[in-house]
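A student in our group prepared the protein record below, which I am reviewing. Here is the record exactly as it was handed to me.
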Amino acid sequence: MPGLEKMSCRGGRLRPPGIRKRATMRALSCGLAVLALAAVLFAQSRTPVDIRAKSLVVTEQDGVVCRELRGSVIMTKDSLNLTCENALQYPDSGLTTFLGNVEIRDPYRVLLADRVIYNEITEEIDATQRVRIYQSDTLSATAKRARYREQSAQAYLFDDVRIRERNRRLLLTGQIGYLDHDRRYGRMTGNPVLTETDSLLRTLTVVSADTIETFADRKLVRASGHVRVERDSLVASGESLDYFTDMRAAILVGSPEAERGDSRTEGDTLKLYFEEEKLAHVEIIGHAITTSPADSGFAEPLNRMEGQRMTLWMTDGAVTESLIEDNAIATYYVRDQGQKTGLNVTSGDRLYIYFDDRKMSRIRVEGGTQGTYTPQRLVAAPADSARKP
């Protein structure tokens, strides 16, 4: 490189191109000479290290030697390349601090930061201040701090972490992040939130949990611990979520519940399916129950559907049809032109229930049909306290 000379450190021996000693000076200025002296810091490294800069100043204070590298610092080691504006080397401790527009390139990532500390002994890189990592054409991350080992595919991120996967339009935020380049895997803890957007960057899905993991090769997002999902008109919760982004399907377990307006659904397992960025249908497996108010503006009484398996089909966020199987029971309050007429309980092996304007319009029963009708005068009225504010 014009204006720069090179110094190598091999086999623990420093081979300068000729630097004149000045015994009477505490500081040594090399002007535009090679920053070869700095290479001694890496004399114990497994492979040769080359460092260049425009000038070098060596100082000693309280027995601590510091080598200040100034201007267009370049370091290369194996497949790692680092550039920055200035650097401070402390050969006794094996630490080097790189300052100003630091850029590190290796086979796994490109890292940009304002400050990086390199540990010769552990080969660990610790980056702070405006940290940005680009790990592929589609994966990037920002944080206040990042740490990883040289030649390692893994990286740890800390404080205000944001991991973005552009091809799936996912943004994962939190306080502690982890990336594995080889496994195409990411993990976030510390109040993690995953946001999925559409092609116009409008929010589609928001997931929060104790831990959120992403598996890029499987197109999978996995959330665990106090999971909450917001999508379309649906708010769901549980202990574990698997969201297959390419299949537009999610599986929620661990006492899962889902709410859509006044309607509430629960069971052992909830499966959510989306079409054209909207919730299309829901499957509830095991102890399936769905309730909704019989009358608008009142919390009670509640219409109720229950069985061992239930499927709900939706249009624009409203249930239009449902199928209940295995010990299927539907309990609903009959209304005729807004007048209360009674209570109907219908059961069978399978119940097909159809809705019109968010209200039950008809029921079809298959197998083991039973039904009970109670006139309105015998139906207990809901308490006044059940009225919604």
The two ends are 76 Å apart (CA to CA). Residues 128 and 145 are 4 Å apart (CA to CA). The longest strand covers residues 318-336. Residues 1-45, 384-389 have pLDDT under 50 and may be disordered.
